[in-house]
Amino acid sequence: MKKITLFCFLLLTFTIATTSFAQVKQEAFSGAKATLKNYKALYVLNSGDEKKISGTLKNIRNVLEDPRLKGKLELELIVFGDGVAVYEKTGPFEERLKDLHSKGVILAQCENTIKERGINKNSLFPFISYVPTANGEIIIRQYQGWATVHP
């Protein structure tokens, strides 16, 4: 008899607990809310791999289209090391870069990379900007409150 009473008690407790949890209605998660007036993000690229470069450019394009961030973004692409391939005139990225540049994305190249590799600036797109060092740019932007994205 004690076993039946205990079993009934446990069954009743479980039923009440399950019913209580089932009645709590959760809202569907739709992502973080963009409550600030503006957002700043620094995309870091130091790879010459075309797939990596394409992915990075796609990430930037996608964030520009995020309805939560429309009109609230300041973006920069900082390139160093092997990433310089994205800015080479002989590469396949000119149209995508021009599109990003026209949307206000800062396209920056590390001058250290240019000097160390003996790259002529004339071999790079004329619409890019230069910074003394990529690491310096990353550090400064970090302390200015920029999010750092390294796809």
In short:
The chain has 151 residues and is of the alpha/beta class.
Describe the structure.
By secondary structure, the protein is of the alpha/beta class. The chain has a domain at 39-131: 3-Layer(aba) Sandwich (Hypothetical Protein Ychn, Chain: A), CATH 3.40.1260.10. Helices cover 42% and strands 17% of the residues. The chain has five helices and five strands. It has helices at 2-23, 50-64, 94-102, 111-117, 134-143, and strands at residues 39-45, 73-79, 106-110, 129-131, 147-149. The protein has a five-stranded parallel beta sheet with strand order 4-3-2-1-5, with helices on both faces. α3 links the parallel β2 and β3 (106-110). The radius of gyration is 26 Å and the shape is elongated. The protein starts with a helix and ends with a strand.
How is the topology of this model organized?
Elements: H1 2-23, E1 39-45, H2 50-64, E2 73-79, H3 94-102, E3 106-110, H4 111-117, E4 129-131, H5 134-143, E5 147-149
Parallel strand pairs: 1-2, 1-5, 2-3, 3-4
